Amino acid sequence: MAWFKRETKSIDVGEEKKTIPEGLWQKCEECKAPVWRQEIEENDHVCPKCGHHYTVGAMERLDSLFDGDWEELDGALRATDPLRFVAAKSYSDTLDRIGGGPGPREAVVCGAGRIGGFEAVVAAMEYGFIGGSMGSVVGEKITRAVERAVERRAALVIVSCSGGARMQEGVLSLMQMAKVSAALARLDREKLPYISVLTHPTTGGVLASFAMLGDLNIAEPGALIGFAGPRVIEQTIRQKLPDGFQRSEFLRDHGMVDAIVERKEMKPYLVRALKFFLG
Amino acid sequence: MRETGDAADGPLQALERELHELAGGSGDAGAGGRIEELRSEIRQLRQDMFQRMTAYDKVRLARHPDRPYFLDYVDAIFDEFEEWHGDRNFADDPAIVAGFAFYKQRPVCLVGQQKGRDTKQRKFRNFGMPHPEGYRKALRIMKLAEKFSRPVLTFIDTPGAYHGMGPEERGQAEAIAFNLREMAALRVPIVATVIGEGGSGGALAIGVADRVNMLQFSIYSVIAPESCSAILWRDQEHAAEAAEALKLTPEDLQRFDLIDEIVAEPDGGAHHSPDTMAETLASILDAQLLELDALPVDELLSGRYRKFRRMGEFGE
User: Fold this and answer.
1) Where are the alpha helices (H) located in chain B, listed in sequence order?
2) Nearest alpha carbon to residue A266 among A138, A122, A70
3) Which of A227, A240, A249, A256 is the best residue to mutate to test the B interface, defined by the most B CB atoms within 10 Å of its own CB?
4) How far apart are the first and last CA of chain A?
5) Cα–Cα dist A170/A152, whole Å
6) What dihedral do alpha carbons B197, B128, A225, A190 form, nearest 10°?
7) What is the pTM of this model?
8) Which candidate, A64, A71, A59, A68, places its Cα nearest to that of A46?
9) How far is the CA of A174 from the CAs of A14, A110, B93, B256, B303, in angstroms?
10) pLDDT tens digits for chain B (316 residues)?
11) Which residues 42-101 of A have a C-beta within 8 angstroms of B?
12) Are B139 and B182 within 8 A, CB to CB?
């Protein structure tokens, strides 16, 4: 790119941080407008100015989709570091550190309850837990969720939010793709509905298994959805990717997702879809 | 990106040269004994070397440019292979070859990733990195096998599914995911063998099978060690450590109960004696097909489900 075309809009204005009280305000990462943090939170974590969808945690997601109370499934499953994986950091240290935090204990939370009166099992991924990556626990919990849907003849919804397979569990992670997909083959044969909800970001082995296998694949607006990460592709093809590449709208235009649905419309959208299929 | 040479070659070559010279020489009375000595020394040295090989040495061997590729096994083991092209949607992908052949007069379906031998072929085969069309073609031919009740044999040898704009536009992830689901339910026996590189989802997309084998010097990994190094260390310098950490050798996979059989390679690796390699592999495939033939379809499918269902390690 020529020097005179260089973009300047994202230059960080350090002054601003000092004048805005810590924690109460934030600059929207999309439109850069200063927004009251509470206003974003009360708006389902969507920027009230530009509609940018922020990542939402698994528990909150489940609360937003189920009719009322729901029961958590298999919440006790824990990763065990089977490879004794040590890189720059050791996996077991990472697990200890995150496990001691306030968030969910793994990168997916599964629940059973009702959506619009229909019995449903929902798995919602937690990006805050090692980038929502899929290791043995994620694969197992989602497989059990699928099997439970088959047993109870319930609908299945999986809300994906993940960087892909968890490297720290090596091929064990890779095989979770096959495990979950095999369970989905059974669900499909039982003629039960599976709606895959893709949120920012959904990439790699999660996209290349259950996230792309919905009877309906529904994406939130503006989400990054791709097999390979954009930087990896840019390195491979040695050119810059066009704006909007691998965003929800791009996937819809290329025939990979059925619809783009805003977060606040998601629940009524799922209810209507379940009425189409089961009502 | 090209990997050359056995990690283990070097001192071996000196002995081999001497052996070659002696064996090529005229009937020197003392040569016979020395030749035997050299042969056993070479054998011993090779064994020692392979015992000392690091995980990354094995990665390099799995990528060795002289290793037999899918079509070499097709030639060596099967008769009258007929390749069928295209996914009936967009294109033919030369990185995946699929068709039918006879094995001892019996029709079988063959699917495999194919790398190229020289620069031109490598480019044509895209280094064995398939596009979505390749995976869709693979499934199309496997569905033919299902329709006509023929067993499927797949041969895995890929650095991974291709990362590019075209694959993203045409649904690389969807193509892989769909194969995983459909192979899990395919109503004929499937045997998959990793013959070189088992590169992540791009490998698994033809790897959901009743029996999964790995050649002794093949690898199967969730990510290339170089990419793992780039992510976790933020440089490519730690690929060898990453290879160690990722536990990608056949012995590792067997320890976690992820594969059925490790297929022994000839001394020095498959490329030192491709015919012996093909023979060994053929006898294992033969036995596995026989076993799977005996199973009623429902048992076959529930067995396949259980096989992948139990994969994973966790606490509860």
Assistant:
1) 11-24, 31-52, 55-62, 70-77, 119-124, 132-147, 165-169, 172-185, 200-204, 225-232, 239-246, 250-255, 274-293, 297-309
2) A122
3) A227
4) 55
5) 33
6) -70
7) 0.91
8) A64
9) 43, 21, 24, 13, 20
10) 334 444 445 667 777 777 777 777 655 666 778 888 888 888 888 778 778 899 999 999 999 999 999 999 999 999 999 999 999 999 999 999 999 999 999 999 999 999 999 999 999 999 999 999 999 999 999 999 999 999 999 999 999 999 999 999 999 999 999 999 999 999 999 999 999 999 999 999 999 999 999 999 999 999 999 999 998 888 889 999 999 999 999 999 999 999 999 999 998 899 999 999 999 999 999 999 999 999 999 999 999 999 999 999 999 9
11) 74, 76-80, 82-83, 85-89
12) yes
CB contact A112 to B (< 8 Å): no
Query: Domains of chain B, with CATH numbers?
Result: 11-52 (no CATH), 59-309 (3.90.226.10)
Domain ranges of chain A: 17-54, 55-278
Give the single-character DSSP code of B148: T
Residues of B within 8 A of A131 (CB-CB) are: none
**Hey, is the C-beta of B233 within 8 angstroms of any chain A C-beta?**
yes
CB atoms under 10 Å from CB of A170, counted, come to 27
Report d(CA B70, CA A11) in Å as an integer. Answer: 52
User: What ipTM score was computed for the predicted complex, to two decimals?
Assistant: 0.91
Q: Is B251 on the interface with A (CB under 8 A)?
A: no
Among A86, A137, A177, select the one facing B314 at the smallest CB separation.
Answer: A137
Contact list, B238 vs chain A (CB under 8 Å): 87
CB contact under 8 A, A169 and B313: yes
CATH number of A55-278: 3.90.226.10
Strand partners, B156: B194
Tell which residue, B173, B177, B98, has the closest CA to residue B138: B98
Question: What Å distances lie between residue A255 and A252, A259, A262, CA to CA?
Answer: 5, 10, 19
